[in-house]
Amino acid sequence: MSQHIEHPDYHHKQLTIGLFGFGVVGEGLYQVLKQTPSLKASIKRVCIKNPEKKRNAPAELFTTDRDELLNDEAINVIVEVIDDADAAFYIVKTALLGGKHVVSASKKMIAEHLTELLQLQQQTGQSFLYEASACASIPVIRNLEEYYDNDLLHSIQAIVNGSTNYILTKMFEEKLSYRDALLQAQQLGFAESNPKLDVEGYDAVNKWNNLLAHAYGIVTSPEKILFTGIQSVQAFDAQVAEERHYVIRLVAQAKKLESGKVAAFVLPQFVQASDHLSFVRNEYNGVVIESGFADKQFFYGKGAGSFPTASAVLSDISALRYDYRYEYKKLYHHTPGELTNDYYLKVYLSFENVEEVPKDKFEWIEEWHAREDRKYLVGVLHVQHLIDSDWWKTNGTSLVLLPNAIIESLDLQKLKKKSLELAGLQLHHGFKQW
Amino acid sequence: MSQHIEHPDYHHKQLTIGLFGFGVVGEGLYQVLKQTPSLKASIKRVCIKNPEKKRNAPAELFTTDRDELLNDEAINVIVEVIDDADAAFYIVKTALLGGKHVVSASKKMIAEHLTELLQLQQQTGQSFLYEASACASIPVIRNLEEYYDNDLLHSIQAIVNGSTNYILTKMFEEKLSYRDALLQAQQLGFAESNPKLDVEGYDAVNKWNNLLAHAYGIVTSPEKILFTGIQSVQAFDAQVAEERHYVIRLVAQAKKLESGKVAAFVLPQFVQASDHLSFVRNEYNGVVIESGFADKQFFYGKGAGSFPTASAVLSDISALRYDYRYEYKKLYHHTPGELTNDYYLKVYLSFENVEEVPKDKFEWIEEWHAREDRKYLVGVLHVQHLIDSDWWKTNGTSLVLLPNAIIESLDLQKLKKKSLELAGLQLHHGFKQW
Ligand SMILES: NC(=O)c1ccc[n+]([C@@H]2O[C@H](COP(=O)([O-])OP(=O)(O)OC[C@H]3O[C@@H](n4cnc5c(N)ncnc54)[C@H](OP(=O)(O)O)[C@@H]3O)[C@@H](O)[C@H]2O)c1
Ligand SMILES: NC(=O)c1ccc[n+]([C@@H]2O[C@H](COP(=O)([O-])OP(=O)(O)OC[C@H]3O[C@@H](n4cnc5c(N)ncnc54)[C@H](OP(=O)(O)O)[C@@H]3O)[C@@H](O)[C@H]2O)c1
């Protein structure tokens, strides 16, 4: 009986796609589209860089001339999944100005051009969708856009980089070496072409930059966000984590402080076993959203890989049939949020050489441990200091946040006293040289 | 700088709400709205049943005359959160026909009138939103509508009833008695006014009925879906679960079979520790969506309670500012799915009295256990038999599905042989009387 119901505004827009890129994501999309005929979307032409490469698709699909796609009137959707951010921006801009909708997965390009891309969307009225660029298969942008569109978003904590999470899992659970773990991630298609982007946190901070616009209406740039990757994390740190029943994850977070301003950063963190993020292993991503009244919500799914990423691109393509656009409600319809660096973080810091650690920069040091192989401390630093310096991520120094690391304000008198007591204690723990 | 961007189609529709019900959810919404002034939504009038009850809100807000809300031209949104399904349907129908948008949390009313409600939406063009009626704070309807709108949805498994999950958690983790656990759930505001609705699975199957429309475009009715609750689950079953490293959950599921048709039911199930649903404790709900290419996705959040439910109502209200409607894409824009009962389930069955168990109805019995206090078996039953009979949930018999319980087709020759071998074995295991 249900078959006979006709919807009043039934329409199936025919989508004709010009695809840029035929790598991990591009070829994945090609395969996925072949298996979803009901979508009525077809790839008319594919632009790639290297005409010599062998492709698993008919040769006549391919070109190296981008104008053959951008100037083709019959193509109404450009899907951009290349690994060159500058070329990607040119393609996206030209396509939007040419009256085409665009779907993209390039978080780097979006992060570098967010303001212009917002203006282009307003100017042209075209849709620019990029769900795959955030947590691949998890519809996090869509949910932030559509669901948390009031002023009750307390915080978001997320694992947004599948490669580093894969590497951390393999290193700590299977005791793989860092190199072997990275190699596996690359072979499985999770890693960016340039592994530095993943490992040093650039990919995560780019994604975080873009998500801040949808979460809080904050339009900023990655250089303004405190971040690092997992390049300094040591086997020693994993051992300490284990002793304390923690796991280490690279966590992107944003939190509305009591001042109303937003703290946002991407740093390695000790995660408690009871924390939803400890559930997130291998190349999976996870997002914990804490909102007024609704308590914690947790979204989990594959954060990288050919098909999971392609399936997010597919969902964006599918949404274009109904002329879906991001509304950036928190930016345009509310008072946009504002970033702040005026707060403190409680950190674990491991190091070889105590001279490298500027102890006077700590507001408070509450633990000292000197082991034979390595030393560590637990203390509190002002965020501005972390932004202004890099000693904490160089020279073999490794910083990992404690759980609930954000401290909005300090009772300094109390802490100074505590610190002094600890300064006495340290002598008994192998810090005689300090 | 972002503050200066003006969105081209900026609009803030003023919402004037007529609220029906001021119980757990209604009063929650009243509180939540007071704390979200940016929404520009205000409650003009509240209709309740009992004029004598003390209310935490100005007396002049309240009335017992529904027409004062339904006939008020200034009210453009009706929020219906009462616990009387018949009255609720009248209210929703009258409001839609009267040109008002409606937000509701009444899964029972929606399940009972789904076809009419679909027709009313088409006829009137008004929005009818009911996210809170599914998994309270988890935006599952919205995600099924917006994100999985292609034909790649393999399966959904979900914990959709917060009360039963709370009771199961308290009984099995804290060894509370069933009565005490239920009492706690009621005091905390999770339980339906009539506990039978929760405990016997009616609430879960109502929700499942409604979600099937958004997931697969299936419009059916709860009587056609195989279901039970947790009323028969025994401490003994929990003990067996523990021995096998399982937990017991009331799981609602739907799966596309190889035939293309959909199996759907709500039954208690043994859940493995590695399963996402084992993560879901207390009054939380969880949804695992398995789709082609994207692998498994997991959504988790509070599934009941005053504020979590009110916050889902709030999100629906907020969506009305942008004239959001469900499109029921899988029903109207695709070939809708079709339910089937032609498959088998692998079940655990515990019982006191072996005579109550019609062993000839089993396709296959693979384990027998007779303990001093109680007996159990593991075997395979055809679903149609479970639908047509009720011995498996009466007379102290308790049925719990095994993990991956669905069996699409059986190699009967092989199984018969196995069954006969087991029939021999059973004599050694205390089933001499059979
Ligand atoms: N892999 C993932 O799991 C994943 C997940 C989320 C997002 N992403 C994003 O998706 C994008 C693509 O990633 P990928 O992993 O698919 O990269 P990839 O495997 O390295 O493929 C890159 C593709 O881009 C093409 N290309 C590069 N420059 C071009 C240009 N100027 N014009 C036309 N084609 C050009 C390459 O052409 P040739 O084939 O001729 O070399 C290749 O086909 C990136 O932005 C990445 O950040 C990837
Ligand atoms: N509680 C939850 O966690 C939860 C979660 C999801 C969905 N829901 C759904 O939300 C709805 C409300 O649940 P609840 O827990 O808030 O129930 P509740 O606490 O029992 O409150 C019911 C309210 O409805 C009013 N009412 C009953 N019949 C009425 C009528 N004919 N006209 C006007 N008002 C009437 C009652 O009035 P009086 O105050 O005068 O008695 C009372 O205020 C139900 O459909 C339920 O299934 C509840």
Any ligands, ions or cofactors bound here, and which? NADP nicotinamide-adenine-dinucleotide phosphate
The CATH architecture of one domain in chain A comes to 2-Layer Sandwich
Oligomer: homodimer
**Low-confidence parts of chain A, pLDDT < 50 over ≥5 residues?**
1-10, 425-434
Question: Which structural class is indicated by helix and strand composition of chain A?
Answer: alpha/beta
Considering DSSP H and I runs of 4 or more, what fraction of the residues of chain A is helical? Answer: 25-40%
Biggest sheet descriptor of chain A: 6 strands, parallel
Helix count, DSSP H or I runs of 4 or more residues of chain A: 15
Most extensive interface, chain pair and sizes: A-B, 68 and 68 residues
The CATH topology of one domain in chain A turns out to be Dihydrodipicolinate Reductase, domain 2
Q: What is the CATH class of one domain in chain A?
A: Alpha Beta
Largest beta sheet: strand ordering of chain A: 3-2-1-4-5-6
> In what range is the share of β-strand residues of chain A?
15-25%
Task: Write up this protein.
Chain A has 15 helices and 16 strands. The first copy, chain A, has 434 residues and is of the alpha/beta class. Among the domains of chain A are: 152-298, Dihydrodipicolinate Reductase, domain 2 (2-Layer Sandwich); 344-433, 2-Layer Sandwich (Alpha-Beta Plaits), CATH 3.30.70. Chain A has a six-stranded parallel β-sheet with strand order 3-2-1-4-5-6, with helices on both faces. A six-stranded mixed β-sheet of chain A has the order 8-10-9-7-11-12. In chain A, strands 14-15-13-16 form a four-stranded antiparallel β-sheet. In chain A, strand 14 (362-370) and strand 15 (375-382) form a beta hairpin. The radius of gyration of chain A is 24 Å and the shape is globular. The model of chain A is unreliable at 1-10 and 425-434 (pLDDT under 50). At the A-B interface, helix 5, helix 6, strand 12 and helix 12 of A face helix 5, helix 6, strand 12 and helix 12 of B. Strand 12 (295-302) of chain A pairs antiparallel with strand 12 of chain B. One NADP nicotinamide-adenine-dinucleotide phosphate binds at residues 20-26, 47-50, 53, 81-84, 87, 105-107, 132-133, 136, 189-190, 192-193, 304-305, 309 of chain B. One NADP nicotinamide-adenine-dinucleotide phosphate is lined by residues 20-26, 47-50, 53, 81-84, 87, 105-107, 132-133, 136, 189-190, 192-193, 304-305, 309 of chain A.
